[in-house]
Specification:
The structure is a homodimer. Chain A starts with a strand and ends with a helix. Chain A is α/β, with parallel strands linked by helices. The first copy, chain A, is globular, with a radius of gyration of 20 Å. Chain A has two domains: about 90 residues, Cobalt-precorrin-4 Transmethylase, domain 1 (3-Layer(aba) Sandwich), CATH 3.40.1010; about 120 residues, Methyltransferase, Cobalt-precorrin-4 Transmethylase, Domain 2, CATH 3.30.950. Strand 6 of chain A pairs antiparallel with strand 6 of chain B. Chains A, B: Pathway: Cofactor biosynthesis; adenosylcobalamin biosynthesis. Chains A, B: Keywords: Cobalamin biosynthesis, Methyltransferase, S-adenosyl-L-methionine, Transferase. Chains A, B: GO terms for molecular function: methyltransferase activity.
Chain lengths: ~240, ~240
Amino acid sequence: MVGLGPGDECLMSPHAREAIHLADVVVGYTGYIKLIAPDLLEGKDVLSTGMMAEVERCRRAVDEAVAGRNVAMVCSGDPGIYAMAGLVMELLETHDFFSDICFEVIPGIPAFAAAAALLGAPLMHDFASVSLSDLLTPWDKIEKRIRCAADADFVIAIYNPRSKKRAGHLIDAINIIKLFRRGSTPVGIVNRAYREGQKVQLVTLDTVNEQDVDMQTVLIIGNSSTREVAGKMLTPRGYAGKYDI
Amino acid sequence: MVGLGPGDECLMSPHAREAIHLADVVVGYTGYIKLIAPDLLEGKDVLSTGMMAEVERCRRAVDEAVAGRNVAMVCSGDPGIYAMAGLVMELLETHDFFSDICFEVIPGIPAFAAAAALLGAPLMHDFASVSLSDLLTPWDKIEKRIRCAADADFVIAIYNPRSKKRAGHLIDAINIIKLFRRGSTPVGIVNRAYREGQKVQLVTLDTVNEQDVDMQTVLIIGNSSTREVAGKMLTPRGYAGKYDI
């Protein structure tokens, strides 16, 4: 399981690059395969599939590995954060393949850390990450997580804020957070971090516009002390109260 | 602000490497400077300081930048997660230096993502990250965050689980989480991920031993569906309930 990082090759680790270089087969969502330099894929079997074929994609990767081939299954960001490392482990478990192959996860820079870097320093204090996708998780569980994260003053990263099937979920989430935080709380909206078409916006809970987000957007919602500084987002850790800075 | 990643050079991004290469001055905690290959530091001013001189270290970095030098301030993991990006922004704000310099954060693979990769796939669902350090945060706020994260069934990453001054905080945190989760919930304990002396342990809420952790340890506490599979930690995302895998 290979984490490609946010997208730009300059943020892909040498370890990830080496794993792809050594692989016989590279498996991944079509959009992620495109993030890899073509020369690195030369001479390899490349199995790419569209967005909705996640189970099929992982099954193919497992089948190839069990057949004795060296497989790099690539994910953008980190393979262990809302990606495919878990599903591959479930397949290995279900079919009792763990003793037949060597399974390794190569971490990558997660999408929310990339978004945070482009925004400034919004994650400097405790944070929670919530996906708004209710394909595999009941919405009331998602709502409870948002409510608890807001109540405990976590900085909140939001993944999968919108899809064609699920209009309104982001606004529902924002409204829950506004029960606990002022409307002027900074919100960072990052589309396509470190990829072509990158867009970074700093708005507030009061001015979030659902039209600005799609399924590739990550939002970062400040905690009660997050503020805008020089057009960037800052969540102070507390040094200024304790030390003379 | 340069994120070095967990430690091993093979997980440091080319962008981070390039930023250090281009710098006149490299500033960082002594332990982080040691993670950088000596040849990359050749001919540069290296300003390293011990653990407790965070404000002084950031002030020196800012002073050098304002004097017109190209500064790489290095952090292990990601500079925006429990690291120095925020304090540097506070200094730039306090002294009104934002218009004088160009401030950039280069993200890195965070410590908890590195720990998760070594454990298997524990972060596959929504997660929260909490630091147990009460140097800058009141303990009752930390307790509330742990309680809310446990109640909402977040996977929980714990940073700074122990220090000489603060015995007992980890056990206090575990006891709060046990109010919401069974004692057999898997807990991953990772020391020095991807560094010399790396140690990865899989225990449970009932068997966490405070002697196994220090300030460099990251713990990952499973949610209600996390389980041990082939000696690894897996938080299933929910595919098995919805699809035939």
